Amino acid sequence: MPARRNKFYKLLAAAGLTVLLSFAQVGSVQAAAPPPENPQSGSSGLQGKVTSPPPTQAATITTPSNGASFDKLPITVSGLCKTDLLVKIFDNEIFMGAVICTNNSYSLQIDLFPGQNVLVARVYDSLDQVGPDSNKPTVTFTNSTLGEFGSRVTLTSVYGRRGTAPNTVLTWPIVVSGGTAPYAVSVDWGDGTPPDLISVATAGTFNIQHTYKSAGQYKVIIKATDKNGTVAYLQVVGVANGEVAASATDKSSSSQTIIVKWIWWPALLLIPFALISFFLGRRHQLYILRRNLERQQQAQQ
Questions:
Q1: What CATH number has the domain bearing residue 188?
Q2: Helix H or strand E encompassing 252
Q3: 264 and 293 both lie in a single domain
Q4: Residues near 259 by beta carbon (within 8 Å), at least 6 away in sequence
């Protein structure tokens, strides 16, 4: 009977300690590695589309002011806008250039037509949904070379922003008109590579091509010079967008982080129980030792 009681007290003390430790919750959670940062800011997706309302806030044109007059090109157009939207500038409803809005403002250089030019800025979201028009300043360009060379060379495109995945060829149709053919075209793709040099024999549509190595958005500057030396200028936005590689995703999903979380309030309630159980078990052990000593002394007498 004493052996059973001793075993009971030992189990009681062990149970109290076990219950106490059981409230230390140890969990294993999947720790996905953070996606790599793009080398360029403002990366834009191309793989899918999610329905959303078009932009509701119009951009503004603060420079140039209404009534301004110019005799040299290109000119700078700048104003306010909502960050991350694409801003397209139109001159007499002809597309003249595009740029991504950053820090609620934009700035880019465009060409003008000889004579009167009505400018307007329009904003577009990542789904190419257009927002309301900006104010429409009217400016004048006086071209002293028109009488000598005739019409001025111009550049435009259907696209203000165009892209594909990294390491995939991006093809972009550009339209050159006016001036005197042939045209010498240079394209700076904005990623630090040397500009492309292209010879275009006649006016019309031609394609420019490039392969971006890193995901991001890039300022693309296109210049065309005709036979007489007049220059046209077009600024657009090139996009290289790629998904995280599947191997990187698998690797990150296999990594684990052990998180130990202690819940203190039940532990506080169990401490007295554990101490009492330990004390009773200890006391019973001392009682058994004393009885065994007394029996040994009686047997020696």
A1: 2.60.40.10
A2: helix 246-254
A3: yes
A4: 26, 27, 28, 29
Count of the separate structural domains present in the chain: 2
Identify the pLDDT of residue 285: 62
Q: Are 144 and 179 contained in the same domain?
A: yes
Q: What is the pLDDT of residue 35?
A: 37
Round to whole Å and give the CA distance between 265 and 172.
66
Q: Does a structural domain hold residue 232?
A: yes
Can you say whether the dihedral through the CA atoms of 212, 217, 219, 224 is positive or negative?
positive
106 in Cβ contact with 88 (< 8 Å):
no
Please state, in angstroms and rounded to a whole number, the distance separating the CA atoms of residues 187 and 197: 7
Asked if residue 168 is part of any domain, the answer here is yes
Residues 172 and 81 in one domain: yes
Please tell me whether residues 239 and 265 are part of one structural domain: no
Q: Which of 213, 236, 92 is nearest to 157 (CA)?
A: 236
Structure tokens at 109: 């250089």
Name which of 258, 253, 205, 241 is nearest 26 in CA terms.
258
Rounded mean pLDDT for each run of 10 residues along the chain, 301 residues in total: 52 50 40 38 48 93 97 96 98 97 98 95 96 98 66 93 95 96 98 97 97 96 95 96 44 35 50 59 62 64 58
| Helix, strand, coil fractions of the chain, as percent rounded to 5 | 25, 40, 40
| HSE-up (13 A, CA, CB side) for residue 134 | 29
3-state class of 204 per DSSP?
Answer: strand
List 110's β-bridge partners, or say none.
75
Residue-number span of the structural domain to which 80 is assigned: 69-243
Same domain, 293 and 162: no
